[in-house]
Backbone:
């Protein structure tokens, strides 16, 4: 009898254990099948240094795409490559056909996405600042000035609000995979991605009163840009885990560049810095007192002898007022400095705003700026330099107009033998021969308000795709014939496009907007005959 009781108890215990195992297994399975349940991590310091705001990373594992989209693994320079040709290959059928979604990205950083149909008169501060200033302030302080990054099966985008935010988005669905808020200052660029790491520089447009005092006393070496914290963050590209962070002296608004495992950046205090791209440890620092890199993201050039140069534009408060600098990637030593011919005098932040376009095959660097200020008007000047020694090959005047607000120049697309550049003060796009600097055509974009009344544009680089030129400016996407410059069609999106380089993958164009949105639009919706 006792044996039967013991056997019965044993059987019951066995059944209980099996049931517990089944229930436990089911619970574990359910947990892995609740993709919208976020994983949140909060960071308050790194390596013994506290952050001014807690960095909060929220990760939604189930929102990641289940298939390989065929994107490149890396995006090592602003706007994808040296020539700023932001056409990204994909093997994804959905993207090839064209996907459509709108993401209120600004809401993730505590901002308020503004409906794209909102007139400028209803924007924050419009009643006090006027419509032109309200549009510019929104771009610089709330929305996203630049475009997106497509790499490592994700779309990455930065937002200025809150004070800085980065999001990783599923490019097919528009669902957020992870996002990080509480960055030390404004995040204004398209993120750089390398070896599974995404780099986010932050900084602001202000000058301290001390910097102004130095400027008034003509002590240009004591002037730097950045009235709050500047810095750079490195996150795991897949899940947003914070890998390292470092603060910078002066703003760090421009994008860094990564090459051969070296991450280099330039700041508003005239520092050119090289880091170990994996660990963030310092390799070299080159100090250029009085040099201010506002938004001139770094580019690179590989010389015939294998020497790699990192290149950035700087603003100076004394003659020559603007300069292009190339440093050796291994040690940070200045290899050359280049300036405009004396007939052109750079004005305001122009030289320190726009990044240089590098044409690796011909060893030519292209740059633009505003110059020759007089009675509220300026020339827009484009020039080419020898990438090996910095000698100016040619310089041309693209036209004269009223001073554009904020970002003073434009990003230049190089495609084949020609370059395509925007002229913000005139609301135009020009096609220029890379070899000679000859202007082939210049087209005024319709319905684009220009200074002094409105901000003008375009400021981002056009994109050459399927024999067409795609341009984001004002509230529209323009499609141009690259041979004649004729506007084929214009598609109204709304809001405002700042320094936006459209990014195209398959049959989809990805855009950011100053009103706080990230947008995916099928190319067939913009121009039905794009693929004919």
Residues:
């Amino acid at each position: 009898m006792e044996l039967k009781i013991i056997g019965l108890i044993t059987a019951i215990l066995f059944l209980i254990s099996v049931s517990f195992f089944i229930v436990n297994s089911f619970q574990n399975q359910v947990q892995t099948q609740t993709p919208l349940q976020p994983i949140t991590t909060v960071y308050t310091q790194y390596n013994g240094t506290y952050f001014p705001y807690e960095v909060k990373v929220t990760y939604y594992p189930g929102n990641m795409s289940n298939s390989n989209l065929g994107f490149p693994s890396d995006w090592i320079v602003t706007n994808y490559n040296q020539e700023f040709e932001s056409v990204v290959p994909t093997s994804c059928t959905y993207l090839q056909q064209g996907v459509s979604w709108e993401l209120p990205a600004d809401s993730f950083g505590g901002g308020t996405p503004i409906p794209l149909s909102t007139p400028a008169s209803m924007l924050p501060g419009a009643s006090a600042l006027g419509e032109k200033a309200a549009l510019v302030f929104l771009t610089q302080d709330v929305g996203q000035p630049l475009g997106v990054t497509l790499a490592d099966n994700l779309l990455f985008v930065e937002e200025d609000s809150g004070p800085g935010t980065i999001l990783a988005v599923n490019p097919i669905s528009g669902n957020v995979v992870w996002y990080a808020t509480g960055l030390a200052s404004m995040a204004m660029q398209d993120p750089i991605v390398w070896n599974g790491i995404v780099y986010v520089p932050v900084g602001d447009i202000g000058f301290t009163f001390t910097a102004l005092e130095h400027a008034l006393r003509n002590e240009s070496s004591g002037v730097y840009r950045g009235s709050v914290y500047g810095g750079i963050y490195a996150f795991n590209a897949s899940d947003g885990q914070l890998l390292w962070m470092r603060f910078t002296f002066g703003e760090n608004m421009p994008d860094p560049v990564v090459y051969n495992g070296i991450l280099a950046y330039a700041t508003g205090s005239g520092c050119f810095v090289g880091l170990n791209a994996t660990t963030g440890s310092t390799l070299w620092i080159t100090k250029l007192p009085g040099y201010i890199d506002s938004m001139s993201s770094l580019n690179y050039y590989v010389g015939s002898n294998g020497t790699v140069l990192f290149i950035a534009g700087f603003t100076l408060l004394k003659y020559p007022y603007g300069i292009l600098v190339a440093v050796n990637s291994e040690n940070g030593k200045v290899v050359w400095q280049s300036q405009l011919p004396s007939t052109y005098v750079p004005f305001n932040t122009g030289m320190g705003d726009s990044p240089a376009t590098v044409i690796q095959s011909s060893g030519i660097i292209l740059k633009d700026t505003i110059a020759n200020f007089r009675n509220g008007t300026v020339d827009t000047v484009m020039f080419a330099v020898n990438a090996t020694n910095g000698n100016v090959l040619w310089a041309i005047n693209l036209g004269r107009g009223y001073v554009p607000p904020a970002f003073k120049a434009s990003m230049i697309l190089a495609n084949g033998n020609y370059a395509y550049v925007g002229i913000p003060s005139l609301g135009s796009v020009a096609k220029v021969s890379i070899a000679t600097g000859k202007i082939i055509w210049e087209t005024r974009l319709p319905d684009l308000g220009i200074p002094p009344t409105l901000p003008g544009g375009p400021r981002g680089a056009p994109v050459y795709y399927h024999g067409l030129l795609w341009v984001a400016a004002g509230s529209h996407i323009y499609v141009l014939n690259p041979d004649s410059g004729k506007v084929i069609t214009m598609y109204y999106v709304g809001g405002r496009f700042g320094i936006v380089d459209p990014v195209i993958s398959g049959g989809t164009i990805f855009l950011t907007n100053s009103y706080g949105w990230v947008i995916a639009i099928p190319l067939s919706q913009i121009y039905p005959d794009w693929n004919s």
In short: The mean pLDDT is 91.
